[in-house]
């Protein structure tokens, strides 16, 4: 059955069938060929139960928040402000790519939205100032992945929903690894540009008065992040309530800078509907597939397979990590999460590992999948914004940052406290 699912998934995706539909088709196939009773009768109940959750309402709110910031021009102002603060380092404007992605990740919750935002505002600068296209675009693709690690993260919300884990605890757990990755991206960029200065373009130093003036565009975003995350951690609001407050805050910020209009709101709402429908179709389809797989005994089959290998808990985790790296080459990241979580997480918990820790480890591996070909979404998003050159330039530029993510995954396995320190300290 495992071979059937893998072959069916890859085959249907190769036909360019939408991921959500693929998951339903695989569920129907499991029902038809591997179940002794008609699981299709549970479809209606699964569709209702998998979507009838107040937790999932946070998703469209966080998507709308990001849409407002992008379409109102707030993101472009943030990039210009960070340019004045970080372009003095080796690598120049490349650091602004990572810094902007980090700051935008703290409000958008989406890696693809983060990468698209930074790429749109940054690429014209790269061409104008003569930066190496590989490193410049690779940094944007990698920085965009922080959107699913630094809270608030849509993927962490989905993980918490599927595993019944505490979303505030997951947000806390993702903070240190997320900021650690951002810092590591900056260090790696600087190191590359020290060795190869011609890749980094011009280092620019701005007058202190300009740097201080730029804070007017940074402080509102920092305050918005503080309000959203602080209200969740203090227990003043659920993630859904905090997301709605964040939307109101984003509207205020956009209005202050003159970016609110009827046309902008129409585009933001339409974009939100499209992204939310895509996410919910995948979540519902995966819930039905997981229901059929569990009923057909895949969990027992997989548990027996891993048990038959005679591996230690650590070796099993390494096998799971390798599995995610390989699957990440071929499967869209959110789909990979929702398909595997109900199967893998119970096994991980049975081995004695913390589900909060494993959620963060999984997110790091999912981040890697976003910038590894052939299905790395952020690679295509950045290439689309470039409008010139070849996709392989973005792929090559992302390689150093893939290695950073791999190092973070190893560090999380060796030192789980990287993820668990804040949840345990503030619980």
From TrEMBL:
Key words, A-Z = Cell inner membrane, Cell membrane, Membrane, Transmembrane, Transmembrane helix, Transport
Q: Where in the cell is it found?
A: Cell inner membrane
* Tagged with keyword Protein transport: no
Gene Ontology cellular-component terms for this entry are:
plasma membrane
Among Pfam families, the record links this protein to:
DctM
- Extract the NCBIfam families matched here: dctM
Protein name from the UniProt record: TRAP transporter large permease protein
Q: What is the lineage of its organism?
A: Bacteria, Pseudomonadati, Pseudomonadota, Alphaproteobacteria, Rhodobacterales
């Amino acid at each position: 059955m495992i071979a059937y699912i893998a072959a069916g998934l890859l085959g249907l995706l190769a036909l360019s069938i939408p991921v959500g539909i693929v998951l339903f088709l695989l569920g129907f196939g499991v029902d038809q060929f591997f179940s002794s009773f008609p699981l299709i009768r549970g479809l209606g109940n699964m569709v209702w139960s998998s979507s009838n959750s107040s937790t999932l309402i946070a998703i469209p709110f966080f998507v709308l928040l990001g849409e407002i910031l992008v379409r109102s021009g707030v993101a472009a102002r943030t990039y210009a402000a960070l340019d004045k603060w970080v372009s003095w380092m080796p690598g120049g404007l490349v650091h602004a790519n990572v810094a902007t992605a980090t700051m935008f990740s703290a409000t958008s919750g989406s890696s693809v939205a983060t990468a698209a935002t930074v790429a749109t505002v940054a690429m014209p600068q790269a061409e104008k100032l003569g930066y190496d296209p590989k490193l410049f675009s690779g940094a944007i693709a990698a920085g965009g992945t922080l959107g699913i690690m630094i809270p608030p993260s849509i993927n962490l919300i989905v993980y918490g929903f599927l595993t019944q884990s505490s979303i505030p605890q997951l947000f806390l757990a993702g903070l240190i690894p997320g900021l650690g990755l951002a810092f590591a991206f900056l260090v790696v960029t600087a190191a590359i540009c020290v060795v190869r200065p011609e890749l980094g373009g011009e280092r620019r130093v701005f007058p202190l008065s300009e740097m201080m003036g730029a804070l007017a565009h940074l402080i509102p975003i920092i305050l918005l992040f503080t309000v959203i995350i602080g209200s969740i951690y203090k227990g003043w609001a659920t993630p859904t309530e905090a997301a709605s407050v964040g939307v109101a805050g984003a509207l205020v910020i956009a209005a202050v800078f003159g970016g609110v209009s009827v046309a902008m709101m129409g585009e933001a709402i339409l974009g939100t509907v499209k992204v939310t429908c895509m996410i919910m179709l995948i979540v519902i389809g995966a819930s039905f597939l997981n229901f059929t797989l569990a009923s057909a005994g895949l969990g027992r089959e997989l548990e027996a397979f891993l048990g038959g290998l005679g591996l230690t808990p650590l070796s099993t985790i390494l096998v799971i990590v390798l599995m995610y790296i390989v699957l990440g080459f071929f499967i869209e990241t959110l789909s990979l999460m929702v398909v595997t979580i109900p199967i893998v997480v119970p096994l991980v918990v049975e081995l004695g590992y913390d589900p909060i820790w494993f959620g963060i480890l999984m997110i790091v591996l999912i981040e890697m999948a976003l910038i590894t070909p052939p299905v790395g979404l952020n690679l295509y998003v950045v290439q689309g914004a470039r409008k010139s050159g070849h996709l392989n330039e973005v792929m090559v530029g992302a390689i150093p940052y893939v290695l950073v993510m791999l190092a973070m995954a190893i560090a999380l396995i060796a030192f789980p406290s990287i993820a668990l320190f804040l949840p345990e300290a503030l619980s």
